[in-house]
Every structure is written in C-alpha cells, then in structure tokens.
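Example 3.
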Amino acid sequence: MTNIDQPRAPFALPALPYDRSALAPCISAETIDYHYGRHLQTYVNNLNGLVAGGEFADASIEQIVKRAPAGPVFNNAAQVWNHTLYFLQFSPPAKTRPTGALAGAMERDFGGFDAFCEQFTKSALGLFGSGWTWLVADGPGGRLSIENAPNAGNPLAVGKLPLMVIDVWEHAYYIDHRNARAASIEAFWKILNWEIAEKRF
Ligand code: FE2
C-alpha cells in the first residue's frame, strides 16, 4: 500500500521498492535524498497538518485531489499523489518501451512510441516554470493525450486517468543536471518502467 491508497490521514511517505542509488546516474542517491526524503516528506507533513480535524480528515489523497478547491490542501495532496506515481514508476528493472494495449493505443493516438516520446519531450521542455507533464487516458483503455500542468496540477482533478508523469520542477533535476532540463528528460527515458503505466491503463 502506498500513501495514495491509504483511506485517510495521517499519510506516510510511500516505501520505495528500490535502493536510493538504484537509478544513478540518471537520478542520483543525493537527488533521492532531497527530492523524496525532503521535498516529498514536507508535502506529506504539510498535508497531514492541513487536514487534521477538518472536512478532509477522513478522505483519501485521491478524494482530496478530486474535491479540494484550489489552495494549500489541494496543492499538498496533489504533490503527494504526483510524487508517489513519479517515484514508483521507476521501480527497476526499467522497461523502456511499452507493449500490449498501451503500445497499440500509442500507435493509434500518436503514430507510435517514438512519435509519442518526441511529442512528450517537446511538451515537457516547453512547460514554463514548475510543473508536471503527464501521459493521460480518457479512462481505462481510452484515448491517450499529453497534458502539461503547472505547479501541483493533477489530471484526476479534471476526470482523466494519469498513466505516467515527469516532474519538471527544478528540484527534480538540479543536483544531477543543473539547469539542463533536456538532459534530465533524456535520462528519464532510460529508467522508466513502462509496466507501471501499462497496469494503470
Ligand atoms: Fe518534485
């Protein structure tokens, strides 16, 4: 169980099913220490503090993301949900190309996996400032699209099914790639395990 499956607060950091150095050099142990161990821990702590005793005290993170108005509760819940999917989708070993139904849907909706990667990279590079670039479906097995969301944006809030995501906040890549977002995206493709997105689809 991860924090995004937990029925209610207090939420905890999701356990990582890999060692902190397992993604190096694409994502270093030091980045895991800061990004997972400090940034994500802060969002978890903030969320627990914000929902205690309030209208979302008995809600799951997914329910909070879907129902909370714009503001601190939504921002922290969405950041916990987004980072949980982000870190778990790297569960080694990497599977660098999707197969099965997801591969077929990419052929249908983007003209193939390579064309998808090109469009996704362009979208992630073009996101101004902090945010997330998502691969989403209209629903299980549904039409695929690429969505940029600023800040804590999460497709659940607009009724889409999130399949895969890249964090383009600078905190995700500054230790390993400095200002080079393009290099961090190139590294991302090498460690992604497409099995996670296939199961979600
Ligand atoms: Fe992040």
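The chain has a mean pLDDT of 97. The beta strands are 131-137, 144-150, 161-167.
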